[in-house]
Design goal:
Elements: E1 3-7, H1 16-23, E2 29-32, H2 45-51, E3 58-62, H3 63-68, E4 78-81, H4 83-92, E5 95-98
Parallel strand pairs: 1-2, 1-5, 2-3, 3-4
Length: about 100
């Protein structure tokens, strides 16, 4: 059963990203929003952890949050999405898990 994992908190403030990455499975998706997009900053441990995910895990980030935080040099596998695609993804995956 595929799960879309939603993260919105900075990976530098707590261990939610680490906990999520331990449970994520092939076929799942990871959607970063809000301050969670800081996990994609170059040359950081969170970025390296995201890049080590199996290719069978899709990685998404809200375009608006990437732009607001001025992030550049993003991973090639990242799909930058708008809110409409966010809604589609919630319907596409069998489950949605928000890491509150």
């Amino acid at each position: 059963m595929s799960t879309l994992h939603l993260l919105s908190h900075s990976p530098f403030g707590d261990n939610r990203l680490d906990s999520c990455l331990r449970l994520i499975a092939p076929g799942d998706g990871l959607l970063l929003s809000g301050d969670a997009v800081y996990a994609l900053q170059a040359d950081t441990a969170p970025r390296a952890a995201v890049e080590r995910l199996p290719e069978a895990v899709s990685v998404f980030a809200l375009e608006e949050d990437l732009t607001a935080r001025g992030l550049e040099g993003l991973p090639e596998r990242l799909e930058s999405i708008a809110y409409a695609r966010f809604v589609e993804l919630c319907c596409l995956y069998e489950r949605t898990n928000a890491w509150l």
